[in-house]
Queue: 2 jobs
Job 1
Amino acid sequence: MTNKSLNKLEEDVMGFLNEVQLNFPEAISMASGRPEESFFDLQNLQEYINTFVNFRSKETNVSTEAFLRSLGQYNRTKGIINDIVAKYLKNDYQIDCSPADIVVNVGSQESMVLSLLSLMNRDEDVFCVEDPSYVGISHFALINGYETAPIAVDAEGINLEALEKTIEATKQKEKCVKAVYVIPDFQNPTGIRTPIEKRKKLLQMAATHNFMIIEDNAYGDFVFEDVAYPTLKSLDTEGNVIYLHSFSKSLHPSLRMGVMVADKVFEDGTKLSDIIAKIKGYTTVNSPAIPQAILAGVLLKNNYSLQKYNEEKCRNVRQKRDSVLASLTKYINASKETKLQSVTWNVPEGGYFLTLTLPFKITKEDVTACAKNYHVIFTPMSFFHLSKGGENQIRIAYSYVKINQIETAIENLVHFLATKITNT
Ligand SMILES: Cc1ncc(COP(=O)(O)O)c(C=O)c1O
């Protein structure tokens, strides 16, 4: 009766984690990739709207009253703040693009949906996605019946040899890899950052094999080691990258603001951003004007850059990462269970997540047992894999947990792992 593709989703992983949290409310969650609420800038919303209204009314000679009223109306499909966003992307990410190639969406989730709807044909094309990856896009692709190929992630991001093999195998089947989704900066779920050389190689591959790269930069505002790497989009000279930028982590998720840059011009002169706008007209019609006005106000007040605005938030997430790393070392070294010494983890250079690799497998039942008996919730890495994989890894999300709870959470988690390892 309903969409048969839903059967391809193994289980409702987010529903499961919510259920665990509801059943064990005292458990500290290291499962949620939410931003910390104490930084939400919600007191000044009217001021931000006024800043934008005054800016536009001066520019257009429309009265402030009339311009404010216009925010209650349906609006331009691609957005009403594209010029302001273009200056921000240039300042903070060295991305050069025309406002006409930007589409302002309802979060990056809508940008993902529009990217796939504008590119993919069900019977001809294959969508490649890092494995493990963000299920927001991989599950949308599956629900929509798009052929989706998982590509392994190694210590430096998407594995290019595996991608090459999939491209060749797809050609053999007389199909083509149309799009490749990557999160080069502090990937969700692994926390890995892709080195610059590899970014360049991926761009070369896109040009050689004629596919589009969908670059999701949800965590690029949270760089801990000072040096930001250039985004794929800033290195892209051929329009082969669709760049997705979310404001959920740097402002707040309920704003539901994400922007995409899609400056590809196809051989027949068609512009990808125009195709996307056409499809958006049949999905969300246009993005709500009021959140756009708030976002534009924040950007205008901060001189088209969020680097200073986010400094404190970034420092806070970094402190949390440091606390996770220090606590892991402290409690694993202190444990009487010597087998725990083979547990390893990466040191993320930014973002919200870190991967723990264990000498045994972790199941859904372990999540419940750990929440019940040790009062900590984590996510098995296997939840983010499309195919098999990640059975002996867990994702630690440190963004949302209170800084003063981290040491207890990690101490308890290590006790849980010690018990588990002893019994394995
Ligand atoms: C990699 C990635 N992309 C996109 C999103 C969602 O972005 P938005 O809230 O803008 O839809 C998330 C949210 O956690 C994410 O981890």
Note: The CA atoms of residues 40 and 252 lie 6 Å apart.
Job 2
Amino acid sequence: MEAWFVSSASEALAVKTEPTTYWTFFCNPRRWQIDDFLRSHRDEDDYRVIDWQATWFAPGQLGVVRVGVDTRTRGQLAGRRRLEPGIYAIVQVVDSPKLRPNSTDPYWLEAPPEGGEHLAVDIRYIKNLLDRPLLLESLKSDLAVTDRFLLDGFQGASMPLDPGTFHRILDLSGTEPHAFDAEPGDSLADLERRYAGASPEVKEVVSRHIERGPVAAKVKEATGYRCQVCLALGQNPFSFRKRDGEPYVEAHHVTFVSRLEPGSLGPSNIITVCADHHRQLHYGIVELAKDTAEEFVFVIDGVALRVPKISHIADTA
Ligand SMILES: [Zn+2]
Ligand SMILES: [Zn+2]
């Protein structure tokens, strides 16, 4: 396989670069014909990983596939349209990097030598932009797009991508939030391990799965379907009754989104809240002041509120 870059330059970059959980994957259609791949409706492929970035990849990270100048000859294009430089897909990393035999898929124009091995991750294409790529030409004049590697290119397979740039591209691409996916785990601890390094959007997806699942149902039962914030404020903790007679209440993971630590998906990190207070916890002026074995202490609009943890409620019930 060709050398991607001179190693001293790469070492200098390695020192300066920080992982962000987002990636730009650089694609050269003269080597690997992404247009044919995107037309094939396959949605998974592996992507080569640079050694010094290998430990930064984790399942559930998000990224974009960037195509630079399409230097295929007319013969190689064989009637196909030359790709304009731009973003051609939104992708999600599926696993951690592993050594694999060099790929021999039919999209290679300059296939890597057969029999060799390289470090690669599986990626899932969650948005195919072949028919309406986000052209670099217009991204260059977008003030929210600041990532230099994405704009100027890079002689390598991947680079961490600036979060603000990723979010702007995500908006422009029209990717629906339900495109992000989390595989069900055998246990909450499995999920926590698997998605510990994921992008925040994918952690949200995992969190929402749990908030609608059996673990959350048990917590709701234990808190008596009451809003624990209303309760702490001395207000009526019940919302409306649902058609099945159960009072409506929502489950919320207190520390999930900022850090996916062991235990963070479990019941001791879930509280039940009314729809209003749930929104307020996400978007309001809220600080988690204390997190002990027995309780959370929130400061909401300057008022400290003690919310007992489910384990404590169950113990004292
Ligand atoms: Zn409430
Ligand atoms: Zn929530």
Note: The longest strand covers residues 117-128.
